[in-house]
User: Fold this.
Amino acid sequence: MLTGNYSIADIKRKADELGLKNNNKMPYAISTFHILFKNEFYCGYFYWKDENGNKKRYKGKHKAMISEQEFKKVQLIIGNKKFDTRSKSYEYAYRGLFNCGVCGCSITAERKHQAKCTHCKFKFSCLHRNDCPKCNTSIIEMNNPYITDTVYYHCTKGKGSCLQKCIREDEFEKQLTELFDTLKIPKTFYAFLINELKFHNKEINDKNETKKSNIKKRISELENRNKGLILMRADNDISQDDFVKLKEENTKRINEFSNQLKSFEDTENNWLEVINDYKNLPQDLMKSFQKSDNFTKRAILSKLVSNQRILDKKLYFTRTKTLSAIQSCYEYYSSRNGGFELKNRLIKQGDLGGFDSSNTVWRTGRDSNSQPPA
Assistant:
């Protein structure tokens, strides 16, 4: 088949001559040969469903019968639509998830399917053609040509010219892996932190209940005053101007107290709910991230970082306030105690001050506080 001198039909006829038969002692159908030559198992790969039921391509541990380059060449020979030279849609893993660090435009993706001519050494795109544009040698006629299939990410240049350089997907994923490795926090610490926050929230909520009760009492008093003003005005005990002035003052104070009350209700148990949410993040973030669709990837990133951008082939992130606070608390507690001492309450040691941590910019390959170049 690799010589280009035989079709699948020719190979079937040869198999019939040799007497090759299936389990039913019948000659193999030509469709069986089509399936055989399109099966990536023979070049070392196989497909298996993930936990979401989607088929994923994996590198097998079995010995490959042919190289991946030879397999791709066979697909060009037999015209496998999966490997044809026509332009087609392609699912890009990270398109639209990042912005350009120079102009702020979105980062898009581009797939380059290229071949290197074995005759003249010219490298060309084989997405739209199957012969060398320089010497016109067909890929089929080349002796084991070097074929690459690479995805690059680059700026869309929506605001005009941009000097931002492109980055390969494998390098992109390497930097993401570095990022996710720095964000790992043991589940044991999450469990510890939840226990401490429950204790902390109980103390805070007890104090807040007293404050809320006093606020509700003041609101009720002011509302009764307004009712009294209405009766006084009806009896003509106060003038219209005094009535309007006093009612406006009371209403203004009622609104102020109502906002204070709402503020207490909004903040109660908020951190406990947030920590419970982060606790469910998988420990192997990168593996989970790669298996997810783009919608899930955005959700994962939104929990961990913000302002994702690429500058000079480096990924920059700003850790979310929540994650920064959790990490600050974990790092401080680990360095101070060398482990977890459940009997010591964080609230007593002041460790919960970590939740006021400011955002930090993180870049792959440098310290967590590094800022991008101006």
About this structure: The longest strand covers residues 107-116. The chain has eleven helices and ten strands.
